[in-house]
Structures are given as C-alpha cells and as structure tokens.
Amino acid sequence: MTTLNDYLSQKREAVLARRSRIRSGEAGAITLKAGATAEGRSGVRRIRIRDFQVITDSPPDFAGYNLGPSSPELLLGALSSCLTHTYLIHAADQGVPLETLEAEVSAVLDPRGGSEGHETIPVYPHDIVYTVTLVSPANSAEIARVTAAVEAFCPILNLLKRGTKVVGTVNHRQPAAAASDAA
Q: What pLDDT was estimated at residue 182?
C-alpha cells in the first residue's frame, strides 16, 4: 500500500516555493470565481469553476433527479476537502509523516427550517461536526501542532466558523419576445 509521504515531499517543495513568492512580494490576493446555470426541464445546476464542471441536483422529494450532490452537501464536501488539503500542507511544512488521511463532515439540515411554526430552525446546514482520521508514526505533540495550524489556516473551516460579508445583486431581464412587445 502506498502512503502519502512521497506526496508530502512534493507538497513541502510547493509550500516552500509559495512562501518564497509571498516573502518576495510576487504573490498577492486573487479573485476566485464560480458560476452556475440551471438546466432546462431538469433544473440541474451546472457549476463552472475554472475549466471544471460540477453537477448539483436535489433528491426526488424536492423535484430533483438525484444526479449529483445538493448544494449543502457540496458545502460539506468542500469543508472535508479543505481540511484534508490543509492537513497535507501543514504536515508537509512541519515534516510530519502521514500514511493515510481522511476527513468526514456531517451537519443537520432540517427541511422545516424557516417554515410556519418552525421559524427558529435554521434554513442552512448547522451543527457541523468533522472527524479527521490519520495514520502517522508522529507523536501526539507533532499531530497537535499540525492540527493547531489546520484550525488556524483552513480557509473553509474559518469561513464557516467566522462568517463573512456577502453582497448580492439581481440582474433582471425580460425575455426577448416581451422586450420587443414593450417597444
């Protein structure tokens, strides 16, 4: 069975190179972008991020076809991915060997949230819990140092714990036929 240790040496080189670019002033803030479109008839959402596409859908009990994870499930998937990646980064940076690594995330999503008689139930995933399981010959103190770094620097974990300002805009347009009728 292969372990993550060969990958961790590559990751360490990348971490050190990035740190060097930051110190030299070559690296700065970037704008991340994602977009989604709802597909006709099915309502399936196609997310586009860089050159990648992800399909999201709802289960059948919410007029979906179960063709992909729901948006709340993707959020949990993003957290589990971000946690594992941040563990890899800080294990590599600190020279802590890892044979295996996985993160499991769960949350409560109550369909009654916000509806009449259930106004106090959140409409969003809440009571988020994660468990990271790793196999490593490192001692407990080394794992605790990596974990502390993960908890301080994991972007999605910190976004969910601290929140952020979100600004929305709606760009409403009339269908082409309706626009020509109005003229």
A: 62
